[in-house]
Structures are given as C-alpha cells and as structure tokens.
Amino acid sequence: MAKKTTRSSRTAPVTSDADAPLTVPGLDTTTGHAVADALQMRVHALNDLALTLKHAHWNVVGPHFIGVHEMLDPQIDGVRGMVDVLAERMSTLGVPPNGLPGALVAARTWDDYDVDRADTAAHLAALDLVYTGVIEDHRAAIEAVGDDPVTEDILIGQTGELEQYQWFVRAHLQGTSGALVSAGAEDEVGAARKATRKR
C-alpha cells in the first residue's frame, strides 16, 4: 500500500465530480439535483459545527467544566450523524457530496470560531451565536427544498434537534427572568465577553 503523504502530488481526480444522470423517482433530474445542491452548504456548515463543538469541548475550563464538557459530546455525535444523513441524501438525489476540508473552507461564508481556552460561560455564549447561524440557515434550506418533501422532512427534523442543542447551551446562560447574559452580542468574542462579565 502506498504511503499517504502531506506533499501535494495530486494529479487529476480519479473520479468525476459530475452529477449522476438520475435522481429519485417522482422528481425530475433538474429538481433533484437542485435540491441536493442546496444540501451541500448544510453539509459544510454541520461539519464545521461538529469541529467547533469539539474545539469548545477540549478548551472549556472553569467551575462548570465537567458538565459542559460532557454535554457537548452527545451534541457532536448528533451533528456528525446529521452530516451523514444529508450527504447520503445528496448521493441518493444523484449529486456527489463533498466533505473535504478544502471545499468547506473555500465555500463557507462564515469566519472561524474565535474562542480558545476560556470559561464555560464564554464558550457557551459563543456557541449560542454559532447555533443561531446554523439554525437560521437550516430554516432557509427548508424553504429552498420545498419541491422535495422527503428532504424537507429531514431538514425539519434536524432543525428541531439543533434547536434542542441550543436550548441546552442557552440554559446555562439564562437568569431566572429568562434573559440571556450575552443578549445583544453581535459576534462570538463579544458574546463571550458579555457572558463572563455577568458572572
């Protein structure tokens, strides 16, 4: 077996990246491929979310460390499962999913997560904003795939799960009034700072 290296020795890809000349029964090929194309950014966003959650899991510190550390692992597993479902749906619809890191970085419209080792409140406040962006984009994708109720149903279910994960995060950031300690923050760093000042 050939040794895998980090050197750039690539030539032309072994397989084509062209769409298959088919899709699922009940959809014409153009519609099926358009639905699948709408899922590619969701695959990128969820892959990014899983990595971001794992980064927070490794870098969270403070008195509530163990609760937050252990809360994030099931969310990471759940998000990774969502990626797999969407990628397989793309393939079913006749479009090859791209899960490569370079494709994610090239296509994303968001910046890297901006919090390293930090207090639990800081990470949770930043993650709350991350979840908001992913959920809003998932809801937009639901509208975009309206011609395919099967894909729409998948995205609706995933959005519900993502909203529950965000609720778990937000529960740590709320006072008894229900207001978030990071309310009004416009970016992750601002949210993290607001959350740690209120503690």
Automatic annotation (TrEMBL):
Gene3D superfamilies: 1.20.1260.10. It comes from the Bacteria. Belongs to the Dps family. InterPro entries: DPS_DNA-bd, DPS_DNA-bd_CS, Ferritin-like, Ferritin-like_SF, Ferritin_DPS_dom. SUPFAM superfamilies: Ferritin-like. It holds the Pfam family Ferritin. This is DNA starvation/stationary phase protection protein. Residues 1-25 are annotated as: Disordered. Signal peptide: none annotated. Residues 37-175 form the Ferritin/DPS domain. It comes from Nocardioides pinisoli. Coiled coil: none annotated.
